[in-house]
Specification:
The chain is built from twelve helices and nine strands. The chain is α/β, with parallel strands linked by helices. The protein has a five-stranded parallel sheet with strand order 7-6-5-8-9. A four-stranded parallel sheet has the order 2-1-3-4, with helices on both faces. Strand 3, helix 4 (about 105-115) and strand 4 (about 120-125) form a beta-alpha-beta unit. Helix 5 packs across helix 12 (about 280-300). The relative contact order is 0.17. The model has no long low-confidence stretch (mean pLDDT about 95). It binds phosphoric acid mono(formamide)ester (CP) and norvaline. The site of norvaline has 9 residues, from helix 6.
């Protein structure tokens, strides 16, 4: 059974073949060619405990394009909202559907679901990681700058779930990942230690300006993720805004990415996100293509 729970679970060859497939599916869709239908006659449950625009819509559209039927299940509408166990939910859903995507507050919920389900499970974001986002981001990098080997990517801001999946990707591909996070918001030390032990080229900076210098991709995310308390975050992150000053020291052909939703004027300036170097809407579009490739990979394991 092929779950897609985290980038770290797959080898580089598998990830690269999913990315190749995503590029081929995108090209075929743009050319008006017929899409293969690996989900024909199949139903995919989509459980969401948190809001979503991109993930929900791109999965729903992608499942339809692959010939399947998406089933949107908000957690409040399921009995898990009243305390039914995730174990029983996994067993029951596995009797009806052919795959499950889940966006949940606790990564442990994802792991339990995957352990008890007898159909593939896909991580649609937890507080710890967001692997589908990073597949779309890698696809965008390849489109703009070619093979990942030797590229320099700089993460600016919170060492959050999206950053964690970037770190896992750095352990699987040969790009340099620089991280500039304010004090107290670094990614988990055990994650960076694991990634380095797997060969990741991670460089940690205090200064966002230094981290951005010469970089080909600048990436950021919100300062307050779903489930986070605001506390002193706005103040703590002030020196970690992706702005014109950082873009000016990056490589001349640098691109800017943000998984969205964005708070213009906080983690990113309007001029940068809406400027000519922004790749954010290609990145958002690529969620569709990358997830279709992930779904196809999961289903072809059965
Ligand atoms: N980037 C992303 O996952 O967006 P949504 O929260 O809208 O799904
Ligand atoms: N880090 C953000 C990503 C949203 C897609 C969050 O978890 O809210």
């Amino acid at each position: 059974m092929r779950h897609f729970l985290d980038i770290r679970d797959a080898g580089a060859a598998t990830l690269q073949s999913i990315l190749d497939d995503a590029a081929a599916m995108k090209a075929a869709l743009k050319a008006g060619a017929e899409t293969p239908k690996p989900l024909a006659g199949k139903t995919v449950a989509m459980i969401f405990e948190k809001p979503s625009t991109r993930t929900r819509v791109s999965f729903e559209v992608g499942i339809n394009q692959l010939g399947g039927t998406p089933l949107m299940l908000s957690a409040q509408d399921l009995q898990i909202g009243r305390g039914e166990s995730i174990e029983d939910t996994a067993r029951v859903l596995s009797r009806y559907v052919d795959a499950i995507t889940i966006r949940c507050f606790s990564h442990d919920t994802l792991l339990t679901l995957a352990e008890k389900a007898t159909v593939p499970v896909i991580n649609a974001l937890t507080e710890r990681s967001h692997p589908c986002q990073i597949m779309a981001d890698l696809q965008t990098m390849i489109e703009r700058h070619g093979a990942l080997d030797g590229q320099i990517v700089t993460w600016i801001g919170d060492g959050n779930n999206v950053a964690a999946s970037w770190i896992e990707a750095a352990a699987r591909f040969n790009f340099q990942l620089r991280l500039a996070c304010p004090e107290g918001y670094a990614p988990p030390a055990e994650l960076t230690a694991w990634a380095r032990s797997e060969g990741a080229d991670l460089v940690i900076y205090d200064s966002a300006l230094e981290a951005a210098t010469g970089s080909q991709t600048l990436v950021t995310d919100v300062w307050i993720s779903m489930g986070d308390e605001e506390g002193t975050r706005r103040e703590d992150f002030r020196a970690y805004q992706l702005n014109e000053e950082l873009l000016a020291v990056a490589a001349g052909d640098a691109i800017v990415m943000h998984c969205l939703p964005a708070w213009r004027g906080m983690e990113i300036t309007e001029g940068v996100i809406d400027g000519p170097q922004s790749a954010v809407f290609d990145e958002a579009e690529n969620r569709l293509h990358a997830q279709k490739a992930v779904l196809s990979w999961c289903m072809s394991g059965n």
